[in-house]
Specification:
There is one protein chain. The chain is mostly helical. The protein has one domain. It is about 65% helix and about 0% strand. It has 18 helices and 2 strands. A two-stranded antiparallel sheet has the order 1-2. The longest helix is centred in the last third of the chain and has 31 residues. The chain is globular.
Length: about 425
């Protein structure tokens, strides 16, 4: 069977099995299955990408745009946009938990809603700039002639994250990281560093990409126009962020004070320990704090949860010091530190998956290879399970046991993806040519 058909069959088999489990998603799942049948059986294999890729992208993004909100963060952003319009200053007259660059899409959505006299539909106008950015990056990606199945991953996988894709600020991070990964693979170092810098000014977490410091070498020579554009954008973003000197102190204080989040691996360990040892009860197990839900841990996890991630990232950085002396960068390498973050951070918000989905889409995973196939299967399952948890989030926070079991399996699958990425890295040690 043609690899494109194999990929589509795999995606829709996994997604349909998840989506049809919940009646709220039956019409959505039916639409996907009908469209997949049309692609699989009525379009010639050799012309799938040429004739259907753009159409499939537009249909998938239209579905994402039109589906109703489910625990959307947009309703948190709207009053912030209103306060900005009224002239209030963030980090001074009101608290804001993210770096200054994240104010741009919030403010832009409010300005558009007021300009078009549609202030009652802020969510729609917040999503439109994200959609435009998504379309722009898609065209940027197509110009680089990525294989069809890889592009299909980027097109289709967001459908399994539909409650999140255009309802969070994090899409900007995911798309910028994807562009940075491609830039590193093309040896466009200045462009890649500029993009990572912009992403870090947008949200702090992308600074973990400093584990790729061995790649940050570049020669001082006349800059190409494209690289100069990215460098200028980073400089503007840096100067703009400098206008809010208190921002970084407040952001660090806010996030370092967060408890172990309920969706994290550490919360799963505590839950499983309580379940299998009959230790403690689940009264007041989940608590609301810092705009999300954390746990009151029975186990003493605070120190180990704070130290594990920095130690693992430091070890990864030391490994890459030697690795990149002999081997070239591949896009899936950038997935590794962010999967480490997802697996071992004290905080695992579902929108963090938006960071890695675009990277999966450009990591050249091939459905015909066993390791790659399992990465794609588990990625579909992780995204689908995360959406199911979000749909039933109130029941989850009330410690409904089947949902906590689903969360446990989801986090185990995340660990499995991380292990598979390390196995793929080990495989590249044997097969990759020297970069020098």
């Amino acid at each position: 069977m043609n690899p494109i058909r194999k990929y589509l069959l795999l995606f829709f088999a996994v997604s349909a099995s998840l989506l049809f489990c919940y009646d709220i998603l039956l019409p959505y799942g039916a639409l996907l299955c009908i469209f997949s049948i049309a692609l699989l059986f009525f379009i010639e294999p050799d012309h799938v990408i040429l004739t259907a890729q753009n159409l499939l992208f537009l249909i998938s993004r239209t579905i994402l745009l039109l589906l109703p909100a489910i625990f959307s963060d947009v309703y948190y952003y709207e009053p912030i946009g209103t306060r900005l319009i009224q002239g209030e200053i963030p980090y001074s007259t009101f608290q804001f938990e993210y770096p200054p660059l994240t104010l741009i899409p919030i403010l832009l959505g409010k300005v558009l809603s007021l300009f078009f006299g549609d202030s009652d539909h802020y969510r729609f106008w917040f999503q439109i700039p994200l959609l435009v950015f998504d379309l722009g990056v898609y065209q940027w990606l197509r110009r680089r002639a990525y294989p069809g199945a890889v592009s299909l991953t980027y097109i289709l996988l967001p459908l399994l994250l539909y409650p999140l894709w255009y309802d969070r600020l994090d899409l900007v991070i995911g798309l910028i990281l994807m562009m940075a990964g491609i830039s590193f693979s093309e040896k466009k170092t200045i462009r890649a560093i500029s993009l990572i810098g912009i992403a870090t000014l947008y949200k702090i977490v992308p600074m973990i990409a400093t584990v790729f410091a061995p790649l940050f070498r570049f020669k001082l020579r006349p800059l190409q126009r494209e690289n100069l554009v990215y460098l200028v954008l980073f400089t503007i973003a840096l100067l703009g962020s400098a206008l809010f000197p208190k921002a970084w102190i407040e952001v660090f204080q806010y996030h370092t004070g967060r408890p172990i989040q309920a969706e994290s691996l550490w919360a799963t360990l505590d839950y499983l320990y309580r379940t299998f040892t009959d230790s403690g009860d689940f009264n007041n197990f989940v608590v609301q704090s810092h705009g999300s839900f954390g746990i009151n841990p029975y186990l003493n996890l605070n120190l180990i949860s704070e130290l594990t991630l920095p130690i693992l990232l430091a070890a990864l950085g030391i490994f890459f010091l030697r690795f990149y002396k002999r081997h070239p960068f591949e896009c899936f390498h950038l997935l590794i530190p962010f999967m480490l973050f997802l697996c071992f951070s004290r905080v695992f918000s579902p929108q963090y998956l938006i960071w890695i989905v675009p990277l999966i889409g450009v990591s050249r995973f091939q459905i015909t290879k066993t390791l790659d196939r399992w990465v794609l299967v588990l990625s579909c399952l992780v995204c689908g399970m995360s959406s199911i948890l979000l749909i039933h989030y109130l029941d989850f926070t009330n410690v409904r046991m089947d949902l906590w079991l689903l969360l446990s399996v989801r986090n185990i699958f995340c660990l499995c993806i991380l292990v598979l990425l390390f196995l793929k890295l080990k495989e590249s040690l044997k097969t990759a040519p020297s970069s020098q």
